[in-house]
Every structure is written in structure tokens, then in C-alpha cells.
Amino acid sequence: MVSKPLHIKFKNQSTFNSSCGLCLNNACLIKRNLKALERSEIVNLKSTLPCKKGQQFIIEGAPVNGLFFILKGTVKVFRTGINGREQIVRFAKEGEIIGHRGFGTEEYYSIGAIALQDAVLCYFSKENLQDTLLENPKFAYDMMLFYANELNRSENKVKSISQMTVRERVIDTLLYIHRKFGDLRGFLNLPLSRKEYADYAGTTEEQVIRIFSSLKKEGLIKARGKKIAITDVQLLKKEISEHHYFLDT
DNA sequence: CCATTAAATTCAA
DNA sequence: TTGAATTTAATGG
Description:
Elements: E1 7-9, E2 15-17, H1 29-32, E3 47-51, E4 56-58, E5 66-72, E6 75-80, E7 86-92, E8 97-98, E9 112-115, E10 119-125, H2 126-135, H3 137-163, H4 166-181, E11 183-184, E12 187-188, H5 194-201, H6 205-217, E13 221-224, E14 227-230, H7 233-240
Antiparallel strand pairs: 1-2, 3-10, 4-9, 5-8, 5-10, 6-7, 6-9, 11-12, 13-14
Helix pairs in contact: 4-5, 4-7, 5-6
The structure holds a DNA duplex.
């Protein structure tokens, strides 16, 4: 399966070159190991696919055939609960790996993934990746570090969901978005609906709206539609400090 | 949870 | 670029 459009036109904006050698994304594991991988076929066997905003590119329960790296854009990764409620597992940005949990022995994806903005994904087949990992210890080691990190993160999340109050979880979510995506002209650099905040924090849309309202009254945040500004990061951190060690990214 | 109104976003002319 | 149509936010029951 060799398909590689070299250039992908992107909504009247820039053009992205999908060849790893020219890629600017230094957060990417492949890119970082490019020297070690130069003898491998991996880079030639990848495919690059554009993905429109709102498009789901991993479906829960579908067979695992490979995994994705985000070249451009942001993505939400979620799992559907028993009553159809969505639990957002994480928000992922450029350079991150999606679908890795299904990689080892799992046959089917346990998560779904949707592009939050127009995105470009690099896709590597399972076989390709397996061959490369077997041949390349440095690359395999980096992958292992990545998995270890993910496990740590996921354990922290269990703790926060089970031990924090709703208000604390919402604040925690705001801080997570803030430190992962930063802000742009004072507003969080990732527009999310209240529903999405709720699905990450493990609560309901109404709760999020009401907590946002109190936070606004207290002067801790400002909101204009989907654009949220954190006016006092320190005070917010203080409110959840007893639970949190800020280990996750 | 649902209904209502206000506000914001999208879309196409 | 505008405003009409659609979606999302906010509040109160």
C-alpha cells in the first residue's frame, strides 16, 4: 500500500509536504529518529491522508490495521460509555500518536478519534511498524518511553476523576488545555464546546456552563463563545493544588 | 433532564 | 462582507 501525495493543499493556507525528510515536526517520533531509520522502508511505506474537521478516522470496534501520527491539526480521542456517554480520553496535537493502544495484541480499537480541525495524518501499517521496531532498538526504545508516559497519564486521570469534585475537574480541564495548547491573544488556543469540556471532565454540559458562569463572576476566567480566557492561572492552580502534581502533559 | 431565549458560528450570495 | 439559517450557550424550572 504505497500512496503518497507529496503535497497536500490545505484550505487556501500553507502547503504541507508529507515526506518525512522535509517535515518540520520535531515532536514526531519518526522525525526524531530519522537518522536511525534511514535504512528502513518505513518512511516510504507510510501514507498521508487529509482529514476534514469533524471527520472520524478511527471508529471504536474497528479492526486495527496500523496507527496514526498527527502531522497537522488537533484531534479528540474518546471512548463511548454504556449509556452512550462520551468520555474524552485526551486531546492530541501535532506529532502525537493515535491508535497505539490497539497496536500490540489488541485486534480492535477501543477508542474513537475525530479531527477537531482540518488535519493531516500520517498512517503506518502495523506490519511496517512491527518490522521497523524489530530492527531498530533506538526507535523501539523511544516508542517504549511514549507508552510509559501514556500509562502514567492515564493512571493520573483515573485518580482525578475519582477523587476530585466536579468544579475541580472542570478547572483541571481548563488548566490541561492551557498548558498543552497555550493561549493565543489571551484565549485558549483550542476552541472546544462546553460539551467537550464536560466529556473530558466527566460531567455534563450544564454543569460546565454553570461552573464557567461562577468562574466568570469570580473573575478567574472570561468567555466569549467558545473562546475561553484564563485570567488568573495561579488562583486556578491553587484551587486544585492539593490533588495535583502536574505530571501530565 | 427539558424548554426557552440569547448569543455565536456557519454558509452562501 | 453581510445577514439569514443553524448551532451552541446560558438559565430557570
